[in-house]
């Protein structure tokens, strides 16, 4: 069980990788991303940290950028501080979008495992249709989304 904050999650990831002898290319790091529009998914087989401190930590601790990642867009359209925004609640009007994104992200993970990352990239790295309104508010924390 990790005991680090998200911005220092690389330590926990590197510990698991070392303990189990996992090749970083066999990982899948999933993060929220304020630089992507709300609900947008982006899958990559490798790449930079994209300004995400948690991803930067993982890259630093693993010593490589060569591992797959799935980013889930949470957008940032408010003037609140980044910390307050990321730790805050989604608005009621955003709930169906984020619920759909979480479902699609789960499907994307399964697709990555079964069909491979290229298949998942071609299927999920595109805009999705908008969902119908009506869902309740959700928390941004992953524990509360799943």
What does this molecule look like?
The protein has a single domain (6-133), classed as Rossmann fold. By secondary structure, the protein is mostly helical. The chain is globular. The chain has a three-stranded mixed β-sheet with strand order 1-3-2. It has six helices and three strands, in the order αββαβαααα.
Write the layout of secondary structure elements.
Elements (H helix, E strand, L loop, with lengths): L9 H11 L8 E5 L7 E4 L8 H10 L6 E5 L8 H6 L7 H20 L2 H8 L17 H4 L1
Parallel strand pairs: 1-3
Antiparallel strand pairs: 2-3
Helix pairs in contact: 1-2, 4-5
Instruction: Tell me the domain tally.
Output: 1
Please state the CA-atom Rg, rounded to the nearest Å: 15 Å
How would you write the strand order of the largest sheet? 1-3-2
| The CATH superfamily title | Peptidyl-tRNA hydrolase
SSE order in H/E notation?
HEEHEHHHH
Average predicted confidence as pLDDT: 84
What count of helical segments does DSSP give? 6
Q: Which residue ranges are poorly predicted, with pLDDT under 50 across at least 5 consecutive positions?
A: 132-146
Report the major sheet: 3 strands, mixed
Shape: globular
Number of DSSP strand runs: 3
Helix and strand content put the structural class at mainly alpha
Can you tell me the CATH class? Alpha Beta
What is the fold named in CATH at topology level? Answer: Rossmann fold
Binned, the helix content reads: 40-55%
State the CATH architecture. 3-Layer(aba) Sandwich
Distance between the termini: 17 Å
Strand content: 5-15%
